[in-house]
Amino acid sequence: MDTDKKVRDLMTSRLQTIGPDAPARTAIALMRDKRIRHLPVVNELGRLVGMLTDRDLRHAAFVPALSEHLAWESARLKSPRVRDVMSWTVVTTSPDATLVQAALTMFQRRIGSLPVVEDGCLVGILTDHDVMRALNATEGIEMGLDDLPG
Prior knowledge:
Elements: H1 7-10, H2 24-34, E1 38-42, E2 48-53, H3 54-60, H4 63-66, H5 74-78, H6 82-85, H7 99-109, E3 113-118, E4 121-127, H8 128-139
Antiparallel strand pairs: 1-2, 3-4
């Protein structure tokens, strides 16, 4: 792997984002339509406040079944917002981090993406797909990248 390659060289900077008060069903439709698995959640100032993943949405599918055990009002149970199902703790990286550093973080944390933050603002996202594509380009590794989602 090219150890000099920086996250900024590989990250996606044209991002799809969503606000924490958006309905979860809106996020589902956006992720499905754009074929993405990781959706950064930003506040009105554009600051990263969380991450919504396909895994979070799968877990949210259990909300109706668990409704009698949750102390949520019925309207919230029927129409959860992004803030109700997103991950609030997010591991991030810098655009100046090396690809090796970012890939190691993703591997160790078992996460599929790293939001890229500079001066407190979200500037991009690096996904496992980006890392695999870089590996394929620099190492000639055949991984069947066309079969990977997002």
